[in-house]
Amino acid sequence: MANATPAEPFLPYGRQTIDEADIAAVVEVLRSDWLTTGPMVGKFEQALAQYMEVAQAVVVSNGTAALHAAMHALDVGPGDEVIVPAITFAATANAVLYQGGTPIFADIDPDTLLIDPAAAAALVTPRTKAIVAVDYGGQPADYPALRQVTDRHGLALVADACHALGGSLHGMKVGALADLSTFSFHPVKPITTGEGGAITTPQPDLAAKMRTFRNHGITSDHRQREKAGSYFYEQVVLGFNFRLTDFQCALGLSQLRRLDEMTQRRQGIAAQYDAAFADHPLVTPLRKRNGVNHAYHLYVIQLRLDQLGVNRQEVFQALRQAGLGVNVHYIPVHWHPFYREKLGTQPGQCPRAEAAYERILSLPIFPRMTDADVARVIGTVDRCVRGFAR
Ligand SMILES: *Cc1c(COP(=O)(O)O)cnc(C)c1O
User: Which of 186, 297, 331 is the pocket-test mutation for ligand 1 (most atoms within 8 Å of CB)?
Assistant: First the structure.
């Protein structure tokens, strides 16, 4: 085919960064005595707590288990309501239901897609137990404003910080901004252990509760019993097996050493996108709030649909055809058939979230992207939307 140009490689929206030190760290554990519930678990927890300048970190098998453990730690149960943003991964709301509670969907700030503290405040009832903020895309939510709401009503403040490890707000690290903060170590997230998660908290009692919860509700683990020369254990609550293995903890520990470097690369890519799109007539990047050190798990643009002759789907298709792994984060949770059937939610109840959903696109961003990759994304997006201009 004389006129065929070699297809450019597909550029995913996110991707892990694994180096030889990571591989060596995992292999070392595989050759050791403890594959799970061994010494790496405490080491990784300590390193996470130290990095985030918070008293306690508890590692679990994934970010969803982290949210579930957080809801358990707060004693969320039947009759309790927990306020969550309408734009998030479904797991944020699902975790409330795992505990028998009811997620209540709050609308978002249309410029940042972060939970709107005023909208959350308006949803508080005598049954409300907690507010969960999501650090959408890696940008910390407005914790000072949310804290005012939770303090006024005696509620817990939870951060779903699965996007935001490595970020900070007014000099305070993500992980230290709420009563409980949850993290995911899925490969697209800031650091990875394959699957994995963690919860941080300044409160040792909550941490102890979650350590029991991740181990079937049993109060001492296998290694402690071996050390004490005892078979004895007690199950005190109904827990789960949400443990993270030692080789995963070794990988996480090795990754954490490079977190700042990887965050800086994400920020460098975001700066190039900002320069290209800040004054663009057809797309608008999300707004970065004052005092934010942004972790840039996602780089999200909003299409100026009033200036385009097509909808988001057509722009999405065109960019996918050009090999860009653009994505949409997220479908409003209350739109899902499960939630409509289970809780009677319906379109129209969070209008700003729903309008934002129609125009958002996540562009590729991950530490190993080259400047040529970034230039390719910028050029392709620019050409594509200009081609669709009214
Ligand atoms: C990734 C993610 C989760 C779930 O984490 P898993 O490790 O995939 O279970 C929860 N909330 C948000 C906002 C996420 O991005």
Answer: 186
**Residues assigned a catalytic role:** 189
pLDDT beneath 70, residues of the chain:
1-7
The C-alpha atoms of residue 142 and residue 47 are separated, in whole angstroms, by 26
What are the tokens at 385? 């939307």
* 331: Cα within 13 Å, side-chain hemisphere: 11
Q: Mapping DSSP to helix (H, G, I), strand (E, B) and coil, where does residue 101 land?
A: coil
Pocket of ligand 1 (CB under 6 A): 62-64, 88-89, 91-92, 134, 160, 162-163, 184, 186, 197
Residue ranges in the chain assigned as alpha helix (H): 20-30, 39-52, 63-73, 91-98, 117-122, 143-153, 204-213, 222-228, 246-257, 259-277, 312-321, 337-343, 351-359, 371-387
Instruction: Give tens-digit pLDDT for 215-244.
Output: 999 997 777 777 788 888 999 999 999 999
**189 Cα to the center of ligand 1, angstroms:** 9
Cα(67) to centroid(ligand 1), Å: 9
**Token pair for residue 226?**
């071996």
In this structure, is the dihedral angle defined by the CA atoms of residues 26, 27, 28 and 29, taken in order, positive or negative? positive
Nearest CA to ligand 1 atom 6: 63
pLDDT of amino acid 218: 95
Q: How far is the CA of 198 from the centre of ligand 1 (A)?
A: 11
